[in-house]
Amino acid sequence: MKAKTTHILFDCDNTLVLSEALAFEACAELSNEILSSQNVADRYTGEQLLVDFVGKNFRGMLLDLQDKYNFTIPSEQLEKYVAMEEDKVIEKLKEKLVPCVGANEVLEKLAKTGNYQMAVVSSSAHRRVVASLEKANQDTYFPPDRVFSAATSLPKPTSKPDPAIYLFACEKLGAPPATCVAVEDSKSGATSAVRAGIPIIAYVGSYETPEKRDEMAKTLKDVGAAAIMYDWAEFENCLEPAGCNVSDMS
């Protein structure tokens, strides 16, 4: 029998807020500059980056690009690129970001019941996540000490699908993984939670077409999602398959 769920851990990008397309649009130019400096002929659009690297932070993306194209960026220069990308993305998010449809209503209801503790667990930098939450009017539900970033909160930066950030968040929250449920939209994020031993509700509503939503639903189910959520209005119905008591939402 599953332990009583006490904490709900939310991914941020394209789970709570529609940020991925904006973020990859902002970093495509910088990525192409880096590839050019390494004499790599290929170039990416924001859309292509989103397809290839969804769920990963910029550091993780640069590591993958180095592997793909067989070049090496010195660690000091890599950190400069990461900081540059973060600034570009935050500027774009502050201008255009909106919450995922229905997410704010669910957060408000959860906060009113007081039956679950809530936190954000993201691959993105802490400063970027906080900026997103503020723009989407979600920061009242997630103070900065309830935001955990694989890019900046850990002693050694990493990215999902590494489970380190979920395990770190559980430790800081005093919540064993079995008492948590995660809400994720990407394969890397869902894999991270599964590897940490946390049941998942998979949200696919941020994908643009019905075909892509169905494709991702299958992918995330195969990863180990307990429930698939096409719309935030379905959240309460997804709690029970994930091991929560649905009466706790009422």
TrEMBL record:
InterPro entries, A to Z: CbbY-like, HAD-like_sf, HAD-SF_hydro_IA, HAD_2, HAD_sf, PGP-like_dom2
Residue spans crossing the bilayer: none
UniProt GO molecular function: phosphatase activity
Source superkingdom: Eukaryota
SUPFAM superfamilies linked to this entry: HAD-like (SSF56784)
Hydrolase found in the keyword field: yes
Hydrolase listed as a keyword: yes
Annotated keywords: Hydrolase
Name listed for the protein in its UniProt record: HAD superfamily hydrolase
Source species: Lentinula aciculospora
